[in-house]
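Data deposition worksheet. Section B asks for the primary sequence of the deposited chain exactly as it was used as input, without tags or linkers unless they were present during the calculation. Section C holds the resulting structure in token form. Section D is free text for depositor observations; keep each observation to a single sentence. Incomplete worksheets are returned to the depositor.
Section A, Depositor: J.P.
Section B:
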Amino acid sequence: MTAATVPAGKRTFTQRMLDGVEKVGNRVPHPVMIFLILIGLIIVLSAIFAAIGVQVTYESAAPSPVVAEETYPGGTQQPSLDIPPEEFYHPEVKTHTETTAIRSLLTADGIRFIFTSAVTNFTNFGVVGVILVAMIGVGLAERAGLIGALIRKLVAVAPPWSLTFIIVLVGILSSIASDAGYLVLIPLGAVAFMSVGRHPLAGLAAAFGAVGGTFMVNVLITPTDGIITEITNEAVALADPARKISLTANMFFAIASTIFLAFLITFITEKIIEPRLGKYTGAVSHEATDIPDAAPVEGDAAPAAQARGLRFAFWGLLAVLALLLVLSVPPQPWGILRNPVTGSLVEDSPLMDSLIFIIMLVFLVCGLCYGAGAGTLKGSAAAMDAITKTYAGLGGLIFMLLVIAQFIAYFNYTNMATVAAVKMADGLERANIGPLWLLIGFILVVLLLDIIIPGVIPKWAIFAPIFVPLFLRLGVAPQTVLAAYRVADSPMNVVTPLMVYLPFIVLLAQKYKKEAGVGTVISLMIPYMLVIAVAWTVFFVIWYLLGIPLGPGAPVELG
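Section C:
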């Protein structure tokens, strides 16, 4: 497979630089080998740092432990936990002082951990379960031909100029469904671009930039918002027990950021990424990838059969939505998917906790209905064969995730990430600069630390007790600090090697460019990371200087 590109003599400095990044990145060892090398490095460094006594003391905000009793329902040998509902759904967040020291992996305890934790490290690695569950529905729908038919329909009804913007906007909004955007929208972005003669890697990059680079904003309240708001309020109580912020404290800023970033990512894709990639002249490579093929099981259906299949899929979608409405809309006790204590559909609700399963169910039902209508899935054996082939194609990815899970577990065991975060935060806290420059410095520190601590909540649990009281003393409202954290948390997601979906995206890129590697994806995403980080920070600074409220009753400075 080859892709025509702009002649070398006409390429800009930025394009040549990114080409260099791609070449260097693709010459590094296979990602599995990279993480094996990193595991060895972590083991050695942990022993050195532990030997010299590296440690930090800091304030941390975390939910209090919930008391639970083991029961054995129905005579089962596996215990179940009875948790008091009120304590489970509304845990009390408390701030406490912690001292964290580097732990060596070369001590007796460390070696025991390496030998005994391998299985649990993998089984507790959440992304594995997400991929295995989601790909049941997504894989079947793709092999049945539903995905391709939907893309062709979208291209037919959407103006050509709007395709990039639609994909980007949906990608930003996908954070309401947690990680589903990585598994669903990024492959769709690549297929959508290829269907109109545009480079599929540009569609992949646009969707990845939208899903990963803007994860902390949305026009809706997401499950993550509730957690980080509670952590913020606990940090506020350290300086002003009478003050707290609401769940909507960043709503205006989040909505405005969503619109701003949608246009920004569209601009990056069409003005930077696509000119560098040039015109796509290749074909889908099924041998180079460990993810499901884009082709239907029985081949492309005729237009009339596709139309019939889409009608069947639409009826299937209506059936699933009707089931969800029956389980969600009625008040308790009939609203089974509502929070059993508060009745909320969003805050700590089974509906929010089951979004990955719901997405799997939607794609599974719609895929089966499409296959029946279009004639691409003939009988239950064909459906089972499609799911089996989907799982068979995930073998390489699952092995890679096994190695990554060990690296992350070892890294967390050593406490190196926590020590690095606290050391950098302490240095910024001691800096004698004004509130605005301190906010900018705060954004830069979080950006850097996101390389080694990609998780939203773990970083905020460390930073909030340090910076929220500090900014309160400087007259800066807690919601402003939280907004700055939103700006800093996401952009680095698209280039950090610790992004758990990076192997999946590399394998997806290989479908369209056989020689693609980590360097290919990183070189594609560097412009998104840089432009989003700089432009979004400027957007935040202008918002702060203009004094626009960040949400209902949430000014940028203390009143």
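Section D:
The chain is about 65% helix and 5% strand.
The radius of gyration is 24 Å.
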